[in-house]
Amino acid sequence: MALFYQPGLRDGALYLEPDESKHCIKVLRKKAGDPIDITDGLGTLYKAEITEPNHKKVGIKILSQENIAFLNGFHIHLIVAPTKNLDRIEWLVEKATEIGVHRISFVICKHSERRILKTDRLIKKAISAMKQSKKALLPQIDEALSFKDWMTQEIDENAQKFIAYVDSANPNHLKDLIQPKQSYQMFIGPEGDFDPEEITMAQAGGFQKVSLGPSVLRTETAALAATLTLNLYNQ
């Protein structure tokens, strides 16, 4: 069954937005009385029934609700330097949403090739991925900040903090340091990797240098590998 998205459900919005309504009536041919699944993007799945099959504004009645958030008991905050190729960022957002992530922040590092990033399209990609993978949780996607600004504003003192860094003298693999059922902040650098000053600043903020394996990974691949590893260790 298709999953629809209505972020206003908790505020009493008993209808679908125009795009969702059009898909429901024009594409899926739903009728009055048909059951549908809806999420608010905050971790709750709603079982509903169509009361008004209007292709511009489908009316609904809520029958039941259940918290099915994928990441029960832990929280993943992915912090990543945006890639030069926008398609790779979109791919990362899609796949990380499918696997499971609470929040994605973008940080402009000294070696970053992309320094401007609009998040509107990324949010749409995340919504689509959430619906396709039958998740009930839409990750928060933040506007890009400079590395220094992020480090002075966003550090979570209670989280396990990791920074992936290509370093032959860095034997600690992420999988060996994870403590299950925690909050995590996971830093992934740009194509040219972090500047040594950024590593020093991150370590001063409590981030541990970690390896993701012997291969040199693209930024988006490293970010997805870290997301998957954190999820697997919390199953």
TrEMBL record:
Q: Domain (Ribosomal RNA small subunit methyltransferase E PUA-like): give its ranges.
A: 17-62
Per its database record, what is this protein's job? Specifically methylates the N3 position of the uracil ring of uridine 1498 (m3U1498) in 16S rRNA. Acts on the fully assembled 30S ribosomal subunit.
Reaction it catalyzes: uridine(1498) in 16S rRNA + S-adenosyl-L-methionine = N(3)-methyluridine(1498) in 16S rRNA + S-adenosyl-L-homocysteine + H(+)
Q: Which CDD domains match?
A: RsmE-like (cd18084)
Say which enzyme class the record assigns.
transferase
Can you list the GO cellular component terms from the UniProt entry? cytoplasm
Subcellular localization(s) per the UniProt record: Cytoplasm
Domain Ribosomal RNA small subunit methyltransferase E methyltransferase residues, every copy: 74-228
- Keywords on this record? Cytoplasm, Methyltransferase, rRNA processing, S-adenosyl-L-methionine, Transferase
The record's listing under SUPFAM superfamilies reads: alpha/beta knot, PUA domain-like
> PANTHER family, from UniProt?
16S RRNA (URACIL(1498)-N(3))-METHYLTRANSFERASE, RIBOSOMAL RNA SMALL SUBUNIT METHYLTRANSFERASE E
Q: Tell me yes or no: is Nucleotidyltransferase among this UniProt entry's keywords.
A: no
GO MF terms listed in the record are: rRNA (uridine-N3-)-methyltransferase activity
Q: What's the Enzyme Commission number for this chain?
A: 2.1.1.193
From the record, give the transmembrane residue ranges.
Answer: none
Q: What is this protein called?
A: Ribosomal RNA small subunit methyltransferase E
Lineage at the top is: Bacteria, Pseudomonadati, Bacteroidota, Cytophagia, Cytophagales
Q: What family, per the record?
A: Belongs to the RNA methyltransferase RsmE family.
Q: For this entry, list what GO says about its biological process.
A: rRNA base methylation
**Pfam families per the UniProt record, alphabetical:** Methyltrans_RNA (PF04452), PUA_4 (PF20260)
